[in-house]
Design brief:
With 152 residues, the protein is an alpha+beta fold. The chain is built from four helices and seven strands.
Length: 152
């Protein structure tokens, strides 16, 4: 299992708004080339997000399904990437003063990833997930700054 933590200098409501907008996952999820479909009831339990991931011409079409949703606090997804199997992605938002402590856990559920699970895979997942949280934090701070600017 890969675990990452990040203090995001924005309130949980701002961070949640980003998670609750499936069309924006491509902005912060590393490797995403395109969001191909988002169920209109995202992020309710059972909703799906379809997207294309890859590097250069090598791409895969993936699907994330919401398994647990506690609005403003917790979102758990099952990501399926054929032929690699599926993984659990758990995101928890903890209020930390006026900021957000973001906890991210990733681990394989099914497929070849369960057999390759261990230090090398977890290490690579931690690096990727750390990059994602850095992107998410930058977007949340930028959006918080925009909201704080008084309009004439």
């Amino acid at each position: 299992m890969s675990r990452n933590r990040r203090l995001i200098l924005s309130p949980p409501s701002t961070v949640w708004d980003l998670l609750a907008d499936g069309s924006r996952y491509g902005e912060w999820v590393s490797g995403t080339q395109e969001i191909t479909a988002v169920d209109p009831h995202w992020p309710e339990v059972g909703a799906r997000l379809r997207f294309r991931v890859g590097l250069g011409p090598v791409t895969l079409d993936d699907t994330c399904t919401v398994r647990i949703c506690e609005p403003g606090r917790r979102l758990e997804l099952e990501a399926k990437a054929s032929p690699f199997g599926a993984a659990r992605i758990a995101m928890n938002l903890i209020p930390w003063g006026g900021n957000t402590l973001f906890l991210l856990e990733w681990h394989p559920l099914r497929g070849p990833g369960t057999r390759m699970h261990g230090l090398p895979v977890d290490y690579l997942a931690s690096i990727r997930n750390g990059m994602m949280l850095t992107k998410l934090a930058r977007i949340a701070v930028r959006e918080g700054d925009r909201a704080a600017v008084p309009r004439p």
